[in-house]
Write a structure and sequence with these properties.
The structure is a single chain. This protein has five helices and six strands; from the N terminus they run H-H-H-E-E-H-H-E-E-E-E. By secondary structure, the chain is of the alpha+beta class. It has two domains: 45 residues, no CATH class; 121 residues, no CATH class. A six-stranded mixed beta sheet has the order 5-4-3-1-2-6. The chain is 33% helix and 21% strand. The radius of gyration is 22 Å and the shape is elongated. A hairpin with a 5-residue loop joins strand 3 and strand 4.
């Protein structure tokens, strides 16, 4: 049997390659230029630290379709009512919308979302809000001020090309439970 010989030079070369791959990965997640990441890579980043860099806070507004035909697919111009506001952490707007779908379809004794959002589930139900249904819309906003709208379809959330108009009923952030 042969014995692997590891020299100091081959070890250093391997570590340099690992460092470069790690820098590229962090650059992809953070959106920073790889050269900037390489300078600060000496600090060891755990999976939790990388995940924290990757996730962002999104402000969410839940809109329920009201009036006739309220359980049909959303069409531009359908009447919508703002019923609840919350904040979630996710990697992108689509994931945030799916987290909101899980929160709004949960009950305090039957969570369909992370336990991290148990208080939001309770507040949503105390506010008297129903589960999200076909035709309802979720507005997702990020820290940069970009906002997207997602409508509940028959099998999934569908991105809308424009933000819908709505009116506010039932719930306001000042009524939030603490």
């Amino acid at each position: 049997m042969g014995r692997a010989v590891v020299t100091e030079r081959s070890f250093a070369s391997g570590m340099r390659k690992v460092r470069e791959r790690k820098a590229c990965f962090i650059a992809q997640i953070t959106g920073m230029p790889a050269a900037d990441v390489v300078e600060g890579i000496d600090a060891v980043l755990s999976y939790a630290a990388i995940s924290a860099l990757w996730t962002r806070r999104f402000s969410v507004t839940v809109l329920h379709k009201i009036g006739p035909g309220r359980f049909r697919l959303y069409l531009p111009g359908d009447p919508l009512a703002r019923v609840f506001d919350l904040t979630v952490e996710a990697t992108n707007a689509k994931t945030a919308a799916n987290i909101v779908l899980a929160i709004t379809n949960s009950y305090p004794d039957a969570l369909r979302c992370y336990t991290l959002y148990a208080a939001e589930v309770a507040a949503y139900r105390v506010a008297g809000c129903r589960s999200l249904l076909v035709g309802d819309v979720v507005l997702i906003g990020d820290a940069a001020g970009d906002q997207t709208a997602w409508a509940c379809g028959w099998a999934a959330l569908v991105p809308l090309s424009a933000l819908p108009a709505y009116r506010t009923i039932f719930w306001s952030p000042s009524m939030r439970l603490t």
